[in-house]
Design a protein that fits this description.
Strand content: 15-25%
Number of helices: 11
Number of strands: 13
Structural class: alpha/beta
CATH superfamily of the largest domain: LmbE-like
Helix content: 25-40%
Radius of gyration: 22 Å
CATH topology of the largest domain: Rossmann fold
Shape: globular
CATH architecture of the largest domain: 3-Layer(aba) Sandwich
Distance between the termini: 6 Å
Amino acid sequence: MKKIYSLILTAILSISLFAQAPQSWTSADIYLAIKKLNVLGSVLYIAAHPDDENTGLITYLSKDRLYRTGYLSMTRGDGGQNLIGDEQGIDLGLIRTQELLAARRIDGGEQFFTRAFDFGFSKNPEETFTKWDKEKILSDVVWVIRKFQPDIIITRFPTTGEGGHGHHTASAILANEAFAAAADPTRFADQLKYVQPWQVKRVLWNTFNFGGTNTQSDTQYKLDVGGYNPLLGKSYGEIAAESRSQHKSQGFGVPAGRGESIQFFTATKGDQPRNDLMEGIDISWKKINGGDAIEKMVNDISASFDFLHPENSVKGLVQLYKALNAMPAGYWKNKKLDETKQLIEQCSGLWLDVFTTEQFAVQTDSIRLNFQFNNRLGVNAT
């Protein structure tokens, strides 16, 4: 049992020290995270600015389909408006970065950026690329793709200009060019010391009908993302509205959506899906050597999960962690190890707090730290 204790403590330290406040999950959150252990699929959404992302779609993909879901924003919104203060430029970019991170904590996505600077409105992508170093920003997009390894990419805007802003169109151009570049070992070869070439299955444009421009049609693939999740007690539209409302500097307080919400997609790279976004992609453990045993272990943990006593799942999760750790090195091994480690922390109910009563200190000073460890659910970890 001492090994279990060490694993739980390591999980808490490795996760909590990076956050200002520890995460706290409900039993419903834990149950969904256990189910996610058997989902090996990922989606990367790409657009130009904070608030360009489709939070309804991100919420649905992360919390219903349980995909690893990310948003790559080309910029940090440095050139936007500010309705809550007088910060502009880089200072505004810092504010909007935090707004995006807050949004992702709600909708379940992960957040990425490139080095592109938001210099304000741009009439077309040609003008945008006079300000952005296209090859440098393309290398950033390729880096994120190779590291995140999405099965599919979804863009908010088209390459043909209907997005209205030069940055919007440029983001789509870069996403589509990165489709080939990320898979080509001769492109940005210096990255290959850290990541491997990655071939995305398809790039989809998430078409829209707003601002007097309707790019949707019945020939496109359609998906309803407006469902209700009884475990969370909310519709995906309600969660998405809360996420989008984090863009406070832009005045984005939006009403909660309930009921049907149809999204439209057309392929710009790869094949057009007919029945599912992940058509032709194996998102199960079957694509991993030895994965069948892992899938069964996850199913057993899920089937025996007690919503009133999540700590009862700790033993099974520790056994799962050991089984995952024994597998050959690979992307999904690492991701599922991280997810399992976080689940062990959340199921255990253990609370670790480090604090000091000293208000001030300077470099080279000694500080007395107080450690508080609370075994709230009585997990037998000794």
